Amino acid sequence: MEEPSDGRRMGGAERRPAEGRSIATVGGGEKKEGNAGGEYGGRWGRRRRWSSPTVLLVFKNTKRKFRYTYMIFPVSYINKIPFYDLQIIKMFKTCAATIRCTKVVRNVNLEKLRHNYLFPEIEARALEHMKKYPDADIIRLGIGDTTEPIPDIITSNMAEYARGLSTRTGYKGYGAEQGNKDLRKAIAESFYKGLGVKDAEVFVSDGAQCDISRLQLLLGSSVSVAVQDPNFPAYMDSSVIIGQTGDFLDETLKYKNIEYMTCGPQNNFFPDLSTASRTDIIFFCSPNNPTGHAASREQLTQLVEFARKNGSIIVYDSAYSVYITDDSPRSIYEIPGARECAIEVSSFSKIAGFTGVRLGWTVVPDELYYANKVPVINDYDRIVCTCFNGASRIAQAGGLACLSSDGFKAVMSVVDYYMENAKILIETFSSLGLVVYGGVNAPYVWVHFPGSRSWDVFSEILTKTHIITVPGSGFGPGGEGCIRVSAFGQRERILEACARLRSVLL
User: pLDDT of 18-59, one tens digit each?
Assistant: First the structure.
């Protein structure tokens, strides 16, 4: 059993042992496996049929033709195995003592996922780096997490509401699953004024990413899906988990049964719809995460016309709309006809620094219908009422304060702060002779490294500068050769990062 040399994953988990180390996975029931060979042959390597729970040992074999050798034993044999790595043996003993399998079969769709979710994978690699360089001053420009404090006008309102919960008159229990009526009205008036969006079409939630998963429950496993390439991983992974895709193909680095719409500099970050296949659902994010590109009015008009012509539904992610600095549309509903073919998802996370508070919303127009003429909003209301008890009342109090006149001015000053960071990053990478995209209408800078692989660039920057970025290939094959750099950061850390980048040859 030889692992692919490029580090691809086997059986849903990556196998990258250090020299002389072993990996164990535990199973149960009858097994008929392998020949250990080499010095671990003899009675340890014979083909056996075990009737008790077993353990699979995989280790590097430097004396044989194949890079990896494996053996399968009953867990009761652990103490008899002649290995020298006491830490691994201890792990085996722990597994043997605690493992107890049910008869429940794993969700086959989860087995299709090619690798760990992108950001935990980055964190794992960052932790390994910190072990190697314990004194390093790490600068995080990777995950898009806000860093600046939430304006006091917002937190004061949240605190006042929270204190009220300790009083007889102020206490409230469950709220409406669809959200606070006043907040729904404020969202409709603040972000969709003049666009025909009604309060009742706004569903307040605990964030856009959670809403993406609820929308997948709404849509089900039988729909066909298109995504931008590159794209935010939640669209793809949730599509795989719900059962909309086929297996992952190593030769293409894509999932079967998914339409990948290339959105790169070669086509101004917008897909060629004349060659795109018809799908039921089109996931589209603008301003885009990760590229930072905001679709123009002309581009979105093409998208809406394409969806209406093909009877498709657009799931439009506008989480970064407040970062738009030019005349690009801030909502899909600015485009005529969009109410008949689009659902919009958005969030307070990047507007008000609510990444930890958790508050967002989804708009489902009452003009959007299924093929059988049933309103989509009816089903989404049922999904929300079944799967969600409503956003936190305290978070919603913060949302209302955010959308007040003074509150919105306060959060926009923070948005301007992040966009100034983006400008500094653009100037730095450009001064290094690199081609840079984004950073004008979104807090992300998309940097191209011609002829390089994204994970290699990620590793080189981390090793040389102790700066964490995001490899573009983690957002899809269309992101290969690029990295995403986040402008979310304290100004002094952004300036320090830029100084480090200028000091090394990338």
Answer: 443 434 444 444 434 444 444 334 444 444 555 555 555 555
pTM over 0.85: no
pLDDT at 329: 99
Provide the strand spans (E) within 403-459.
Answer: 435-438, 444-448
pLDDT tens readout for residues 438-477: 999 999 999 999 999 999 999 999 999 999 999 999 999 9
In terms of Cα–Cα distance, which of 290, 343, 201, 338 is closest to 484? Answer: 290
What are the strands of the beta sheet with 313-317, ordered from one edge? 202-205, 360-363, 342-347, 313-317, 281-285, 225-229, 258-262
Task: For each of the domains in the chain, give its residue range(s) and CATH number, in order of start.
Answer: 22-104 (no CATH), 118-148+408-503 (3.90.1150.10), 196-391 (3.40.640.10)
Short-list 262, 256, 276, 271, CA closest to 475: 262
* Interhelix angle 393-402/405-431, nearest 10 degrees: 80
Q: Compute the distance between CA of residue 146 and CA of residue 143 in angstroms, rounded to an integer.
A: 9
Task: Express the helix, strand and coil content of the chain in percent, nearest 5 each.
Answer: 40, 15, 40
